[in-house]
Amino acid sequence: MSSQPIERSFGVIPVYRKDGQTYFLLIRHNSGHWAFPKGHAQPGESEMETARRELREETGIRDVTLYPEPVFEENYTKTAWDNPRQTVAKTVRYFLGIVHNPRVRLQAAEVQDYKWATYDEARAIITYDASRRLLEEAAQVLELQQ
Fold first, then answer.
1. The domain that contains 83 carries what CATH number?
2. Helix (H) or strand (E) holding 116
3. How far is C-alpha 51 from the geometric centre of its chain's CA atoms?
4. What residues does 26 pair with on adjacent strands?
5. Partner of 122 for a Cys bridge, out of 1, 55, 94, 117, CB 3.0 to 4.6 A?
6. 1 inside domain
7. Number of domains in the chain
């Protein structure tokens, strides 16, 4: 009996604070869904190196402090990109990233749009419940939720 393949990705929950307000960076992937930046590791990269590189590639953001703890994780099943009859278990691990310069330059090949959103705006924009849970967990860490 074969086990279901597992796909792993790593990303950042980007946060920017200004004038007492906290903003989360969401990107709209070319597939149409709104979520946080993420991607696959290159050979020899650590989880944090992958997350930092993907943030830089997808948004142009370089000036960010990533925190090793806590790590936020989402797990879901998706269709394999190379075989529509096969499903793949996907695990994405996210690091909280405090952004120091919020200027964004999108990677047009993978990203359609972006938005710096307040917690409430982000909850409304995020496409999938799993990503919304990540937002909630990050907000608890940042003490944003009442």
1. 3.90.79.10
2. strand 111-117
3. 8
4. 115
5. 117
6. no
7. 1
| Predicted pLDDT of residue 3 | 66
Instruction: Determine the Cα–Cα distance for residues 129 and 138; give it in Å rounded to an integer.
Output: 14
CA-CA distance, 15 to 25, in Å (whole number)?
Answer: 6
H helices then E strands: how many in the chain? 3, 7
Q: Cis before residue 70, ω within 30 degrees of 0?
A: yes
Domain that holds residue 60: 6-141
**Residue 74 to residues 3, 82, 135, 145, Cα–Cα distance (Å):** 20, 22, 11, 20
Joined together, the tokens standing for residue 115 give 């938005």
Question: What does the pLDDT look like over 66-106, one tens digit per residue?
Answer: 999 999 999 988 888 788 888 889 999 999 999 999 999 99
- The pTM for the full model equals 0.90
